[in-house]
C-alpha cells in the first residue's frame, strides 16, 4: 500500500514494486562510476518515475472524502499519537491503499455489483470511503482492532453521504468474524488488508464458515509483498505470503489471479 509522499514529514518508505525499483536504481546510480552505465540507469529511473505519475494521471478522481482523508493522514503526528498512548502502533502514511489500487478494487466490486462488503483492517478509512461511494453497495462492515483508528475513521465519515453505509466492529478480526458467523451474516465480497500474519487464518475462516457464498469475492491486498516470496521466500513475511498464495492457488473451492497492481492484489472468486 503506498501513496505519494506529498506533504509528509517522515522518511518515505517504499511499498510497491516500482517504488522499490526506484530506490534501488537511485542507489545503484550513486555507486556507479561508468558514464555509459549511468546513462542507461538514468533512463530506467526516468521510466519508473514516469510510471508513477502516469498511473495517477490516468486514475479516476478521488472522492471528496478520500481527498480529505489523504490530506489529513499525510499531516498527522502518528508517532506522537503512539508515544502518548493514543494509538496502538506507530502508523505511517504509506499504510493507505494506493490510489490506483483502491480504484482497481472498486472496479472489481462494481463489476460484481456487490451490495454487502466486508473489510478487514481499515487504517484511516481511505479505501472504505471509496467502497461506500459505490452505488450498488448498501453496507460496508469494517473490522478494526485499534480504537484510535475507529475514532479517526468515524470522525472523517461523520456528516458525509458515506457515513450511512458504514458499520465498524472493534476488536481482533478473528473474534469479529466469529460474531458475524454467529449472526449468520454473509457478504458479496471481502477485502483483506489487516495484519499480514493472519491472512491465511482470515481466508480459511471466511471460506470454511461461508461468510462468502458461491460467486462471491475475496480480495487480498499486498500479496506480492515487496517481492519477498519469489524466486524463493525471504524472511518471515516472504514465507507468510508464499504460504498464503500457495494455499489459495491449491484450494479447489476458488479461482485466483494475482494482479501486479500496487503491491499485489489477489482476486479470489468462490466457485
What is this structure's SSE topology?
Blueprint: H1 17-31, H2 35-58, H3 64-75, H4 78-83, H5 99-111, E1 116-120, H6 126-131, E2 139-144, H7 147-157, E3 166-170, H8 173-182, E4 187-192, H9 199-208, E5 212-221, H10 235-250, E6 254-259, E7 265-270
Parallel strand pairs: 1-2, 1-4, 2-3, 4-5
Antiparallel strand pairs: 5-7, 6-7
Helix pairs in contact: 1-2
Structure, described:
The protein has 271 residues and is α/β, with parallel strands linked by helices. The protein folds into 2 domains: 17-58; 97-270, 3-Layer(aba) Sandwich (Rossmann fold). The protein contains 10 helices and 7 strands. It has helices at 17-31, 35-58, 64-75, 78-83, 99-111, 126-131, 147-157, 173-182, 199-208, 235-250; strands spanning 116-120, 139-144, 166-170, 187-192, 212-221, 254-259, 265-270. The two termini are 28 Å apart. Mean pLDDT is 91; it is low at 1-10.
Summarize the structure.
This protein is of the alpha/beta class. It has helices at about 15-30, 35-60, 65-75, 80-85, 100-110, 125-130, 145-155, 175-180, 200-210, 235-250, and strands spanning about 115-120, 140-145, 165-170, 185-190, 210-220, 255-260, 265-270. The protein starts with 16 loop residues before the first helix and ends with a strand.
Amino acid at each position: 500500500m503506498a501513496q505519494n509522499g506529498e506533504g509528509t514529514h517522515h522518511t518515505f518508505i517504499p511499498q510497491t514494486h516500482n517504488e522499490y525499483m526506484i530506490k534501488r536504481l537511485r542507489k545503484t546510480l550513486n555507486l556507479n562510476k561508468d558514464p555509459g552505465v549511468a546513462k542507461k540507469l538514468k533512463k530506467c529511473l526516468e521510466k519508473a518515475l514516469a510510471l508513477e505519475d502516469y498511473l495517477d494521471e490516468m486514475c479516476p478522481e478521488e472522492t471528496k472524502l478520500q481527498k480529505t482523508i489523504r490530506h489529513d493522514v499525510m499531516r498527522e503526528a502518528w508517532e506522537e499519537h503512539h508515544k502518548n498512548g493514543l494509538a496502538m502502533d506507530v502508523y505511517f502514511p504509506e499504510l493507505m491503499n494506493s490510489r490506483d489500487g483502491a480504484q482497481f478494487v472498486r472496479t472489481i466490486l462494481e463489476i460484481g455489483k456487490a451490495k454487502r462488503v466486508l473489510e478487514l483492517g481499515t487504517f484511516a478509512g481511505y479505501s472504505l470511503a471509496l467502497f461506500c461511494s459505490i452505488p450498488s453497495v448498501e453496507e460496508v462492515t469494517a473490522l478494526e482492532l485499534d480504537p484510535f483508528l475507529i475514532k479517526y475513521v468515524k470522525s472523517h465519515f461523520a456528516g458525509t453521504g458515506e457515513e450511512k453505509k458504514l458499520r465498524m466492529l472493534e476488536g481482533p478480526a478473528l473474534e469479529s468474524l466469529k460474531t458475524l458467523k454467529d449472526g449468520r451474516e454473509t457478504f458479496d465480497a471481502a477485502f483483506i488488508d489487516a495484519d499480514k500474519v493472519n491472512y491465511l487464518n482470515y481466508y480459511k475462516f471466511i471460506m470454511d464458515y461461508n461468510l462468502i457464498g458461491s460467486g462471491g469475492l475475496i480480495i487480498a491486498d499486498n500479496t506480492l509483498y515487496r517481492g519477498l516470496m519469489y524466486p524463493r521466500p525471504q524472511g518471515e513475511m516472504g514465507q507468510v505470503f508464499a504460504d498464503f498464495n500457495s494455499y489459495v492457488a491449491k484450494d479447489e473451492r476458488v479461482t485466483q489471479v494475482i494482479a501486479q497492481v500496487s503491491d499485489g492484489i489477489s482476486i479470489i472468486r468462490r466457485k
